C-alpha cells in the first residue's frame, strides 16, 4: 500500500472522553477521487479534522505522500499540500473575498503560484470575482462554499478534503458546485468528498466509504460495484434513521 | 483666553495619545486571542524601568534605553502568553481564568519592580529638550513629540494589520482559529506575536511617559484604568473605535479639568461612565457583540 | 452539604470561639481579627463570583464604601461607631444597586471591565474629594468602639476579637442560608445552564442585581468595622493589592463553596503577615500570593476544596485534565 497518497490507519479519536472514531482506516490513491457518506454524527468530519491535524488521534497513524504526519501541526500539513475545506465554514467574517483568497496562499509553496491560482478560482467561480470587496459574513451560503473551496485551491493542494460542500444549498447551486468540483478533479487534484447525497458522490468519485459509528462500514468500488440503485438501497437499508 | 483653550486642546491630545496607545495594545490582544491582558499597564511600567536602567543607571543613552525597554516589555509579554495564557486555551472558563492569571502577572511585575528598583522616584530625560509654541501656547517639545508619534504609531499598526501578510494572519486567527490553521497559519505563533507586539506598544508608552511622569512601580496602573474606560466606551473589537474613543475621553478629561478643576473631574467622569452604560450597555461606539 | 461537612464547620467555628482563651497576645488576636474581616469579604465575593458566575471584579468597592461611610459618619458627623458600621452595610448595598444597573445587562469581559473600572473610579473620587475623605492621607483617629465605659481595645483586643468573630458567624450563616434558599438554587441553575434557566423564566438581570446587593451588605459592614477597628480609612482599600489578596482567598479556598474562602482567608492572612515580618520579604509577599493563585488555576481551577475532594476521589482529577487537553487547541 505504499503507493497511496494518503493513508489513515486504525485511527481512534474523539472529543474529551467521548470516543468518535474507532479503528477507522481509509486511503486515497494518486489521482483518485474518493467519496464518503453515512449518517449524521458518525464521525466523517471528525476523521477529516484528524487527518488535517486539528485533532490529535489517541491511536493510529496518518501518512501523507509517504511521510508520517500524525502529530504534525495543521500549518505544516497544509504546507505539504494536504488541504481541508471545513464543513459549514464561516472563514473570516470581517475580511473581503479577495483579501481572504490572497491570504489563503500563505505558505511559501502556495505563494509561488498565487497569481495563477487566483485567476483559476475566479474562472471557476465567477460570482466570487463579482464580489471581490464583499465581506465574507455578508455572503450567501452558496457563495461561502465557493469561497471556502476557493481558499483551499489557493493553498496549492495536492489532496483536497471537501466536507459537505453542498450542505443546505438549492439543487441549482448544488449542480453548479458539482461541475466545479468535477473540473477541479479533472485538473489533476485528488480529493476526498464528504456528502449526504450518494448520487452526487457516485457521479463525481471512483470509490466510496460508508462511515458508521466511527468506522468504515462498507467500501464500494464503482468499477466492481452493483448499480446505483443497489447502492442506494444498501445505504438507506443500513442507515435509515 | 485662546491660549488656555489651545493649551487645553494640547493636553487633551496628549492624554488621548497616551490612552490610544494603551487601548490599541489591549485591543490587539483581545481581537487575536480573546484575552484581556490585565498586566498591560505593568508591562508599560516594566518597559520604563528597563529603559531607565539602560539609559541612566548604565549611562548608555536614551536610544539604547528605549530599545531595551520596548524589547524587554515585548519579551515579558511573550512569556506571559506562554506561561499564563496558553495553558488555558479551549478551557471553558478561559476568559475568567486568563483575567485572573494576567492580574497575577500584574501583581508579580509591579511588586517585582518594587523589589528590584525600589520606591525611589526615577525619571527618563526627555527625547527632545526645550519647548515649542503652538499657536501661542507653550508646550514642552517632548509632549509635542508624543502627540505626533502616537497617531503615527497607530497608523503604522493599522497599516500592518490591514495590508501585511503577518498582520492579516493575526486578524484571521482572531476571527476563526481553525480556518486560519487550515490555510497554513501557525496559530500559537500568531498568539505569541500578538502578545509581544502589544507588550512592545506598552513598553513604548512607558518610555514616552517615563520622562513626563515619575517612574514608580504603579506608573502603569492609572493609564491601564483609563484605557479600560476607553475600551468600555469604544468596544474592544476594533482598533479604529478604541483609538477614537481614546481621543474623546482624553479631550473630555482635559476640558473637565479646565471647567471644573481637578476636584470634580474624576467624579463627573465616573458619573458619565455610569450614565452611558445605563443607556448604552455596549459602549458609545460598541456593537452588540463586539 | 453533607452532614460530616456541617459537623466539621461547626467544630472549626467552635475552636475559633475558644482561641482567645489560649491566645492572649494582642498581636496574634489582631491577625485573627483581620483574617475574620477578610473572610467576610472573600466569602461574600464568592456569592457573586462563584455562585452567580458573575465576573465581578469590583467587590472591593463595597468594602471601600463601607470603610469610608463608617469613617466619615463616625469622625465627621460624630455618629455612634456602632451605627456607623451598620450604615456601611447600607451604603455598600446602595453602591451595589448602582453598579448592577449596567452590569445586569452586560456580557463577558465587559462585566469585568465595568466592575473593575467602577472600583478604580471610586478610588479616584475618594482621592479627589479630599475635603470629605481626606484625599490620599485618608481619615485618621476615628472613634473606637465601646459599650458603656468599656473600651474594646482593652484586655488585648478581646472584645474586638469577639465582635469580628460574631460578624463572621452572622455573615456566614446568612450566606449559607442564601445559598440553600430557592433563590440560591436558581442562581446555580442560571450559572450552570443559562439557556435552560432562561426558558424557565429566571431573569438574569434580577438575579445579578439581587446577588450583588446581597453580597455587598456584609462586605460593607466588614468595611465599616475595619475602619473603626483600625481607626483609619485610606484609599489603599481600593487598590490592586487588596483586590488580589481577596481574590486569591476566593480562588485558593475554592470558587462556589462559601466556606472555602473563609478558611483561605484565615490561612493567607497569617501567611502574608508572617512574611511581612521577615525582612526582605515585605514586598515579595504579594508575589507569593500571585504565584499561589496561578498554581491553583493551573492545577485545580476549582480551588483547594475541590482539590481535596479530588484527592479522595482519586481518578476524578486526571479525567478533567484530559478533557481540557483534547478540547484545547493544538493547532
Ligand atoms: N467539538 C465537539 N465536541 C464534542 N463532541 C463533538 C464535537 N464535534 C462533534 N462532536 C460529536 O462527535 C460525533 C461525530 O461528529 P461528526 O464527526 O461531526 O459527524 P459527521 O461529520 O459524520 O456528521 C457526534 O456525535 C458529535 O456530536
Ligand atoms: Mg460532518
From TrEMBL, chain A:
Keyword rRNA-binding: no
GO biological process, one term: L-amino acid transport
Pfam families hit by this protein: ABC_tran (PF00005)
Source superkingdom: Bacteria
MF terms (GO), sorted A to Z: ATP binding; ATP hydrolysis activity; branched-chain amino acid transmembrane transporter activity
Limits of the ABC transporter domain: 6-238
Keywords: Amino-acid transport, ATP-binding, Nucleotide-binding, Transport
Record's keyword annotation contains Disulfide bond: no
InterPro entries: AAA+_ATPase, ABC_transporter-like_ATP-bd, ABC_transporter-like_CS, BCAA_Transport_ATP-bd_LivF, P-loop_NTPase
Family the entry assigns: Belongs to the ABC transporter superfamily.
Protein name, as recorded: ABC transporter ATP-binding protein
Organism: Histidinibacterium aquaticum
UniProtKB/TrEMBL annotation, chain B:
Coiled-coil region(s): none
GO molecular function per UniProt: transmembrane transporter activity
GO CC, alphabetical: plasma membrane
Entry's transmembrane regions: 6-28, 35-55, 61-83, 95-117, 137-161, 193-215, 227-249, 256-279
Keywords from the UniProt entry: Amino-acid transport, Cell membrane, Membrane, Transmembrane, Transmembrane helix, Transport
InterPro entries: ABC_transp_permease, BCAA_transport_permease
Keyword flag Cell membrane: yes
Mode of membrane association: Multi-pass membrane protein
GO biological process: amino acid transport
Localization of this protein: Cell membrane
Family assignment from sequence similarity: Belongs to the binding-protein-dependent transport system permease family. LivHM subfamily.
PANTHER family: AMINO ACID ABC TRANSPORTER PERMEASE PROTEIN, BRANCHED-CHAIN AMINO ACID TRANSPORT SYSTEM PERMEASE PROTEIN LIVH
Name the UniProt record assigns to this protein: Branched-chain amino acid ABC transporter permease
TrEMBL record, chain C:
Compartments, record wording: Cell membrane
Record-linked CDD domains: TM_PBP1_LivM_like
Keyword annotations from UniProtKB, A to Z: Cell membrane, Membrane, Transmembrane, Transmembrane helix
MF GO annotations: branched-chain amino acid transmembrane transporter activity
GO cellular component: plasma membrane
Transmembrane domains' residue ranges: 31-47, 54-73, 79-101, 108-127, 159-181, 209-229, 249-272, 284-301
Domain of life: Bacteria
Membrane topology: Multi-pass membrane protein
Protein's name in the database: Branched-chain amino acid ABC transporter permease
Organism whose genome encodes this protein: Histidinibacterium aquaticum
Amino acid at each position: 500500500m505504499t503507493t497511496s497518497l494518503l493513508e489513515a490507519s486504525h485511527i481512534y479519536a474523539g472529543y474529551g472522553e467521548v470516543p468518535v472514531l474507532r479503528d477507522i482506516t481509509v486511503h486515497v490513491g494518486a489521482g483518485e477521487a474518493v467519496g464518503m457518506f453515512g449518517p449524521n454524527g458518525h464521525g466523517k468530519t471528525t476523521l477529516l479534522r484528524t487527518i488535517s491535524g486539528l485533532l490529535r488521534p489517541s491511536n493510529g497513524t496518518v501518512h501523507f505522500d509517504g511521510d508520517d504526519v500524525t502529530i504534525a501541526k495543521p500549518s505544516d500539513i497544509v504546507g505539504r499540500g494536504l488541504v481541508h475545506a471545513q464543513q459549514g465554514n464561516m472563514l473570516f467574517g470581517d475580511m473581503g473575498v479577495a483579501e481572504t483568497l490572497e491570504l489563503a496562499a500563505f505558505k511559501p509553496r502556495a505563494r509561488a503560484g498565487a497569481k495563477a491560482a487566483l485567476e483559476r478560482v475566479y474562472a471557476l467561480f465567477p460570482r466570487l470575482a463579482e464580489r471581490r470587496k464583499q465581506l465574507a459574513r455578508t455572503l450567501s451560503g452558496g457563495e461561502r462554499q465557493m469561497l471556502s473551496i476557493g481558499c483551499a485551491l489557493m493553498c496549492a493542494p495536492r489532496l483536497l478534503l471537501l466536507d459537505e460542500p453542498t450542505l443546505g444549498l438549492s439543487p441549482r447551486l448544488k449542480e453548479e458546485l458539482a461541475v466545479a468540483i468535477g473540473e477541479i478533479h479533472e485538473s489533476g487534484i485528488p480529493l476526498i468528498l464528504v456528502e449526504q447525497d450518494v448520487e452526487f458522490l457516485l457521479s463525481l468519485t471512483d470509490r466510496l466509504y460508508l462511515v458508521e459509528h466511527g468506522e468504515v462500514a462498507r467500501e464500494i468500488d464503482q468499477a466492481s460495484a452493483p448499480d446505483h440503485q443497489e447502492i442506494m438501497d444498501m445505504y438507506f437499508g443500513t442507515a435509515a434513521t | 483666553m485662546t491660549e488656555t483653550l489651545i493649551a487645553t486642546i494640547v493636553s487633551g491630545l496628549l492624554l488621548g495619545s497616551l490612552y490610544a496607545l494603551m487601548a490599541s495594545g489591549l485591543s490587539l490582544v483581545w481581537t487575536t486571542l480573546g484575552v484581556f491582558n490585565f498586566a498591560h499597564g505593568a508591562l508599560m511600567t516594566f518597559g520604563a524601568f528597563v529603559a531607565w536602567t539602560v539609559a541612566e543607571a548604565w549611562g548608555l543613552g536614551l536610544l539604547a534605553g528605549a530599545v531595551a525597554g520596548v524589547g524587554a516589555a515585548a519579551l515579558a509579554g511573550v512569556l506571559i502568553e506562554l506561561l499564563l495564557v496558553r495553558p488555558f486555551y479551549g478551557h471553558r472558563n478561559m476568559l475568567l481564568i486568563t483575567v485572573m492569571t494576567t492580574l497575577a502577572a500584574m501583581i508579580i511585575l509591579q511588586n517585582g519592580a518594587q523589589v528590584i528598583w525600589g520606591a525611589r522616584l526615577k525619571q527618563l530625560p526627555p527625547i527632545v529638550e526645550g519647548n515649542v509654541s503652538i499657536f501661542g501656547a507653550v508646550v514642552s517639545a517632548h509632549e509635542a513629540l508624543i502627540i505626533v508619534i502616537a497617531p503615527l504609531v497607530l497608523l503604522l499598526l493599522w497599516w500592518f494589520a490591514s495590508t501585511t501578510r503577518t498582520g492579516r494572519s493575526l486578524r484571521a486567527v482572531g476571527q476563526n482559529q481553525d480556518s486560519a490553521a487550515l490555510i497554513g497559519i501557525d496559530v500559537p505563533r500568531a498568539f505569541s506575536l500578538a502578545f509581544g507586539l502589544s507588550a512592545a506598544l506598552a513598553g513604548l508608552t512607558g518610555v514616552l511617559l517615563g520622562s513626563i511622569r515619575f517612574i514608580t512601580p504603579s506608573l502603569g496602573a492609572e493609564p491601564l484604568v483609563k484605557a479600560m474606560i476607553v475600551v468600555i466606551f469604544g468596544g474592544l473589537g476594533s482598533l479604529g473605535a478604541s483609538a477614537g474613543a481614546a481621543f474623546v475621553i482624553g479631550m473630555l478629561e482635559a476640558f473637565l479639568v479646565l471647567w471644573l478643576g481637578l476636584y470634580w473631574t474624576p467624579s463627573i467622569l465616573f458619573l458619565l461612565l455610569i450614565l452611558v452604560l445605563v443607556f448604552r450597555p455596549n459602549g458609545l461606539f460598541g456593537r452588540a457583540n463586539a | 452539604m453533607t452532614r460530616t461537612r456541617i459537623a466539621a464547620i461547626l467544630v472549626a467555628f467552635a475552636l475559633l470561639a475558644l482561641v482567645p482563651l489560649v491566645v492572649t497576645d494582642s498581636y496574634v488576636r489582631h491577625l485573627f481579627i483581620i483574617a475574620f474581616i477578610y473572610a467576610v469579604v472573600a466569602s461574600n465575593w464568592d456569592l457573586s463570583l462563584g455562585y452567580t458566575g458573575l465576573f465581578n471584579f469590583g467587590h472591593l468597592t463595597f468594602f471601600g464604601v463601607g470603610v469610608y461611610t463608617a469613617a466619615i459618619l463616625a469622625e465627621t458627623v460624630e455618629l455612634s461607631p456602632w451605627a456607623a458600621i451598620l450604615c456601611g452595610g447600607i451604603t455598600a448595598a446602595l453602591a451595589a444597586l448602582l453598579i448592577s444597573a449596567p452590569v445586569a445587562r452586560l456580557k463577558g469581559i465587559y462585566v469585568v471591565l465595568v466592575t473593575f473600572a467602577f472600583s478604580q473610579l471610586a478610588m479616584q473620587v475618594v482621592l479627589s474629594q479630599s475635603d470629605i475623605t481626606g484625599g490620599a492621607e485618608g481619615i485618621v483617629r476615628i472613634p473606637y468602639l465601646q459599650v458603656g465605659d468599656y473600651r474594646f481595645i482593652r484586655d488585648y483586643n478581646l472584645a474586638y476579637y469577639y465582635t469580628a468573630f460574631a460578624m463572621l458567624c452572622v455573615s456566614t450563616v446568612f450566606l449559607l442560608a442564601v445559598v440553600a434558599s430557592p433563590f440560591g438554587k436558581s442562581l446555580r441553575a442560571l450559572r450552570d445552564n443559562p439557556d435552560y434557566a432562561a426558558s424557565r423564566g429566571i431573569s438574569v438581570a434580577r438575579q445579578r442585581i439581587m446577588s450583588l446587593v446581597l453580597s455587598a451588605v456584609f462586605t460593607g459592614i466588614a468595611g465599616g468595622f475595619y475602619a473603626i477597628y483600625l481607626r483609619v480609612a485610606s484609599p489603599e482599600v481600593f487598590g490592586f493589592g487588596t483586590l488580589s489578596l481577596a481574590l486569591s482567598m476566593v480562588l485558593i479556598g475554592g470558587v462556589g463553596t462559601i466556606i472555602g474562602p473563609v478558611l483561605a482567608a484565615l490561612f493567607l492572612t497569617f501567611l502574608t503577615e508572617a512574611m511581612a515580618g521577615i525582612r526582605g520579604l515585605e514586598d515579595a509577599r504579594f508575589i507569593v500570593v500571585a504565584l499561589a493563585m496561578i498554581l491553583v488555576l493551573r492545577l485545580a481551577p476549582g480551588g483547594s476544596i475541590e482539590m481535596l475532594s479530588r484527592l479522595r476521589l482519586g481518578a476524578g482529577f486526571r479525567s478533567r485534565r484530559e478533557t481540557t487537553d483534547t478540547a484545547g487547541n493544538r493547532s
